[in-house]
Design goal:
Blueprint: E1 21-23, H1 31-34, E2 53-57, E3 60-69, E4 78-85
Antiparallel strand pairs: 1-2, 2-3, 3-4
Length: 92
C-alpha cells in the first residue's frame, strides 16, 4: 500500500507527464475567408498581445498567465508566467 505524502515521491503518478495547452485566443473567420487562406495570410484573433493566456489540461482551465520570452541560453523560446492558478484540490 502506498502512503499519501505531500512531497509526491510516494505516488507513482506524480512522475507522469501531462500536456498543458496554452490558449492565446480564437479566430472566427467566415468560411469564404478561410478558403482563401494561404502562406503569409493573417488571421486576426479575439485578443490583444498584452491579454492573459489560458492554460488547460484537457478542457479544464487550470491557470492564466502572461506570455514572455526566455532569457540566456533559451532566448527566443516562449514561456508563460503564471498570474492566476486554479484551486485544483478544492475543485474551484
Amino acid at each position: 500500500m502506498v502512503e499519501h505524502t505531500d512531497d509526491g515521491n510516494a505516488n507513482p503518478f506524480s512522475q507522469v507527464p501531462i500536456e498543458i495547452t496554452i490558449s492565446v485566443g480564437k479566430a472566427r473567420p467566415l468560411v469564404k475567408d478561410l478558403l482563401k487562406l494561404q502562406n503569409d495570410s493573417i488571421l486576426p484573433l479575439d485578443r490583444n498581445v498584452e491579454d492573459p493566456v489560458e492554460l488547460y489540461v484537457g478542457d479544464k482551465l487550470i491557470a492564466r498567465g502572461e506570455l514572455q520570452e526566455m532569457e540566456g541560453g533559451q532566448a527566443g523560446q516562449l514561456a508563460v508566467r503564471l498570474t492566476e492558478v486554479a484551486d485544483l484540490k478544492n475543485g474551484l
